[in-house]
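Q: Convert this sequence to structure tokens.
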Amino acid sequence: MKKNEEFYDLEQKIRSLPEPDYDKKFTKETQDIIHENLIQFARSYDKKKKRTGIMKKISLGLASIAAFVLFAILIIPTISLDSNQQGQQGKGEPTVDSNNDNEEIDQNESEENLYENAEYGFTFTLPESWEGYQIVSDSWEGIGADQQQMENGQILLIRHPAWTEEKPRQDIPIMIFTIKQWTSLEKGEFHIGAAPIGPTLLAQNNEYVFALPARYNFAFLEGYEEVETILQNNPLQPKNVVK
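A:
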């Protein structure tokens, strides 16, 4: 029989007994003894309950310590082994990787491609993805009010290396004007194409003006957004031409 069942049976037997008349059958001294015994039993039960709680806490603490010791036994040797291996790899004569700085410089240089045009006096910075670009020559024509050709000049197209006839990509067009031509264009003495707006100025040097054609990207070819991003970073830098 389990302990709880034994206590339950005992409790039922006690409850079945007739309730005594404490005042008649027990003297004052006997009642005091019974009261004292009940107090001692209560204190003993309370201490036992506290002792059980303390033992549980001690058991949990011992379990935690045991887990930590097991962790240390399993992990620390592995860490020590890795440290020793790294120490052995580091032994020997000290070496200086003289290529580190050069590699960083080379990487920075390879991130950009610099196109330089000595004839017209400018440089144009391209991203790394444009490595292997091509320069294609084209021309522009200026039409006067009488619809007669008045001026003409060159357009340089910087072409992405992935450009093909079957799948063309957006070029970077650079119109080249003499300073005189640009002044005449600004005065409205001639216009280029049917666009109601003229070319956009990029830069100029002592001889030439460099501009972006109006509506150059209205065909929305592949890569036109990339070209817009490139142009936003002022990639064209002019240089004075010495003749």
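The longest strand covers residues 149-159.
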